[in-house]
Each structure stands twice: as C-alpha cells, then as structure tokens.
Amino acid sequence: MPRSFWQDRVVLITGASTGIGRATAIAFRQAGARVALAARSAQVLAQLAEDLGGPAWALAIPTDVRDPAQCQAFVEQAAAHFGRVDVLVNNAGMVVSGLFEHLQPGDAETQFQVNFFGALYCTRAALPYLRQSQGVLVNVSSVAGLIGTPTTSVYGASKAAMNAWARALWVELRPYGVGVVTVCPYFTSGVQLAQKGILRPGSLHQGSGSQKQAPGTQTAEEVAQAILRAAQQRPRLRVLSWAGRWIWRLDRLAPWLVDWIMAWGMPRLGNSHHEQELTA
Ligand SMILES: NC(=O)c1ccc[n+]([C@@H]2O[C@H](COP(=O)([O-])OP(=O)(O)OC[C@H]3O[C@@H](n4cnc5c(N)ncnc54)[C@H](OP(=O)(O)O)[C@@H]3O)[C@@H](O)[C@H]2O)c1
C-alpha cells in the first residue's frame, strides 16, 4: 500500500471536541497522522482520543485557549509526547449572535479571546516546532471574516483580525518554509456554533435553525476534508462551498452590492426578533 502523506506526521487541533474540529481530528487520524486534541470538555476529548487509537495515536489535552499558559502547555505536552509538530489547526471558535446594540458587556472580548487570541497563543507556542519541521499553520476562519455579516458583526471582526494576521505571518514565515493557510468555511451543519454559541436579540439563529437550510451548507466532514487538503497543498486562502466562493467573489467586485443584498435580506431572515423587541 502507498504510504500516506500524513503517515507519522503530528497534527495539533484546537476545538477538537465537536463539529469541524472533531471531524478534522478524525480525518487526519484516518489519513495516518497522530493527533493532539485541545478543547475544554475533558471527558469528550478523552473519549475521542480513545476512539482514535489511544495515546500512541491520539492525545487529549484539555485546554482553554483563552489562557496563554494553557496554550503553551498544550503544544509542549503534544511535542514531548509525539516528538514533533507538523501542523497546528487553530479551529477553536465561538460566536455571540445578535444585533450589535444588544451585545452584553464581555461578548465582544470573549469572541476575540477565543477566535483571535486563542489562535495567536497556540501559534506562538507552536512556531519553534513548526520551523523545525517546516510545517504548516492552518487557521479556521470564516466567510464572515471576509465580508461583514449582520448579527455576527464582532464574530466577523475577530475572524477578519485572524485573516489579516495570517497574511502577515505568511510573509514572515516563508523564509523558514512554514506554510500559513487560511480556510474560510461557509455555513456548516452538525453541531453548530449557533447551538453552542450565545444568542442575543436579533440573532438569525433563533427559532428553526435557518443555518441548516442555507444553500451551500456543508457538513463538518466536508469541511474537514477541505482542511486536510489545504494543509497538504498550502494555499494562502481557501474559501469553502460554492455559495461561500460566490459571495466572496461578488464582494470583491462590488462590495456595495453585497451590503445591499444583506440589507434586503435582514428583515426577511430574522429581524422579526428585533421588531418584536422594539415593539414590546
Ligand atoms: N459552523 C459554521 O457554520 C462555521 C462557519 C464558518 C466558520 N466556522 C469556524 O469553524 C470553527 C469550528 O466551528 P464549529 O462549527 O465546529 O463549532 P463548534 O461545534 O461549536 O466547536 C467549537 C469548538 O471550539 C471549542 N472551544 C470553544 N471555546 C473554547 C475555548 N475557550 N478553549 C478551547 N476550545 C474552545 C469547543 O470545545 P469546548 O466547548 O469543549 O471547549 C469546540 O470543540 C470555528 O472557529 C468557527 O468560527 C464555523
């Protein structure tokens, strides 16, 4: 049998307990890699590591990425256990969904702490190892970070920060042979940010779960396969789903048109909550 590209490589994944991160851990493991899993849910992570073959193949390291010391410990423990680090997938993320005027104190800070600073802390810890292995950093961002998205305005801003930071890193790390890849998923089904995230008035995610019906929605497994391919091919940016690419390209040609489309869609999609609240 031909040897897989990922055989014996070591992949660190944050946010591996559910959704895209979990599917990514499974995909890398199935491709032959050894994986280190980070998230806060210790029991879920431990079970996943067990299911993926136990400590020789998968190591669970409970981590809150908001804490730089825990990020450092995650990377050090994984490197000490497996002897190297080839890929870091910064996937841990959370969203507070709702109209900006209804966000609570701390909502903006938490999103930046998890989505942006969490990725930054893990990357800082992993860089010496990635330089050694000429490995690759994969940031799981979002189409929301490429365009401003109403009702997830700060979430989008945290992903836009991630994107700008990654562009600069791509240039800085090129001389060392370290790849920097930004993957931007569109809507993804399965365990949803909208289910695990925090909902505020005006959220488009309240009620029947409109995310699941959005055209172009992908499964977590499809996104995981895209992350796997991107980690091997090392494009600077990969926008996922036909719908994600369509809106991203349209935004580059005519950003005003995308803003108008979103403004037109707002009252129809979910603004009834806003209206309810305003009339209450
Ligand atoms: N779902 C979508 O439609 C979509 C679209 C575009 C981009 N994305 C991005 O894809 C990534 C994964 O999203 P998902 O849909 O798979 O969401 P998810 O199912 O809610 O998973 C989020 C993961 O992040 C972890 N996490 C949250 N806060 C953390 C913290 N403080 N420290 C460590 N881990 C933390 C969660 O684990 P614990 O709770 O156990 O800590 C979980 O494993 C996110 O970066 C998200 O922004 C998702």
Describe the structure in brief:
This protein is α/β, with parallel strands linked by helices. About 50% of the residues lie in helices and about 15% in strands. Helix 1 crosses helix 7 and helix 4 runs parallel beside helix 5 (about 155-175).
Radius of gyration: 19 Å
Task: Kindly name the structural category.
Answer: alpha/beta
Strand-residue proportion: 5-15%
Give the helix tally. 10
Q: What is the top-level CATH class? A: Alpha Beta
Low-confidence stretches: 271-280
Overall number of strands: 9
Number of domains: 1
CATH topology tier name: Rossmann fold
Amino- and carboxy-terminal Cα gap? 66 Å
Secondary-structure element order, N to C: EHEHEHEEHEHEHEHEHHH
Sum up the overall morphology in one term. globular
Can you list the ligands bound to this structure?
NADP nicotinamide-adenine-dinucleotide phosphate
* CATH-level-2 architecture: 3-Layer(aba) Sandwich
Can you walk me through this structure?
Helix 5 (153-173) links the parallel strand 6 (136-140) and strand 7. This protein has helices at residues 19-30, 42-51, 68-82, 107-133, 153-173, 193-196, 220-233, 242-253, 255-269, 272-279, and strands at 10-14, 34-39, 58-62, 87-90, 96-97, 136-140, 179-184, 198-199, 237-239. The protein has 280 residues and is of the alpha/beta class. A seven-stranded parallel sheet has the order 3-2-1-4-6-7-9, with helices on both faces. The termini are far apart. The protein has ten helices and nine strands. The longest helix has 27 residues, at 107-133. It has one domain (10-279): Rossmann fold (3-Layer(aba) Sandwich). It binds NADP nicotinamide-adenine-dinucleotide phosphate.
